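Example 9 (inverse folding). The structure is encoded as follows.
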């Protein structure tokens, strides 16, 4: 697989003129797993949205490049085609497009014209992935996320990850609302892609629990819209034990949110 480098430098992002991210710097390379952790309202999902190019999130300063190319100049679909994938905290329902059709066109969008995946191969791969994720086969023929339970939506995000095989994935709270069995299935899916494709990944999570199943190489704590601390997997372990208070004390802050 090709090598990818996603480089975020001094990123400032505003929503409706309110500054949410206040200077995030982070580089993610193929094969590296980074976890972004932090309490609610600290800017985690805003970072994910800015990387993918959500129109509401305005980058006012700084840069994001993929393999040296400015992705801020790219439309959302161009970013996806270039190899960036977002697994969303709240996936949208898309009426009229089946999960299967969505997957197939997403895969083909990343391939050259004339080199589209054959229907046979697609179905075989999709059936394999549905099995591994313990997803009902009928789901593939239902409209994307429409009427899916919270857990089904999360599994569906990982189904997309497994099928699309992006270079760099941003996974936003893929653990929220999952019971322990579903969490393990989801983690197994991510780990499989990690092993097989050399995926580079930014895992956004509020709780340490997910990181018991997907071991990060690097852990970053975000507060007040900035990365305030970085370390290895042991940093996440400490959070499980001690929560976030000790970091706030270390930093001498009371309010960790972007509203501070
Ligand atoms: P986290 O994911 O860490 O919980 P978010 O990035 O979702 O935090 O939100 C950070 C702050 O930005 C919050 O105060 C939130 O209210 C605000 N915010 C995020 N998205 C929007 C939006 N679309 N419109 C208005 N405010 C938003
Ligand atoms: Mg969030």
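The amino acid assigned to each position is listed next.
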């Amino acid at each position: 697989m090709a090598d990818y480098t996603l480089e975020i430098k001094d990123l400032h992002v505003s929503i409706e003129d309110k500054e949410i991210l206040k200077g995030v710097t982070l580089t993610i390379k193929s094969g590296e797993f980074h976890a972004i952790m932090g309490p609610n309202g600290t800017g985690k999902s805003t970072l994910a949205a800015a990387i993918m190019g959500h129109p509401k999130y305005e980058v006012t300063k700084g840069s994001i490049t993929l393999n040296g190319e400015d992705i801020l100049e790219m439309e959302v679909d161009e970013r996806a085609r270039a190899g960036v994938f977002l697994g969303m905290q709240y996936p949208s329902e898309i009426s009229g497009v089946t999960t299967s059709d969505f997957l197939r066109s997403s895969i083909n969008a990343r391939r050259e014209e004339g080199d589209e995946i054959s229907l046979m191969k697609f179905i075989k791969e999709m059936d394999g992935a549905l099995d591994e994720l313990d997803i009902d086969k009928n789901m593939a023929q239902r409209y994307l996320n429409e009427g899916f339970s919270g857990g089904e939506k999360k599994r569906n995000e990982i189904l997309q990850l497994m099928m699309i095989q992006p270079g760099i994935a941003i996974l936003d709270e893929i653990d929220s609302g999952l019971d322990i069995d579903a969490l393990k299935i989801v983690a197994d899916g991510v780990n499989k892609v990690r092993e097989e494709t050399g995926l580079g990944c930014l895992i956004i999570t509020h709780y340490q629990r997910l990181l018991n199943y997907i071991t990060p190489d690097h852990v970053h704590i975000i507060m007040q819209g900035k990365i305030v601390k970085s370390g290895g997997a042991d940093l996440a372990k400490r959070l499980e034990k001690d929560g976030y208070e000790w970091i706030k004390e270390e930093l001498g802050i009371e309010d960790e949110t972007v509203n501070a």
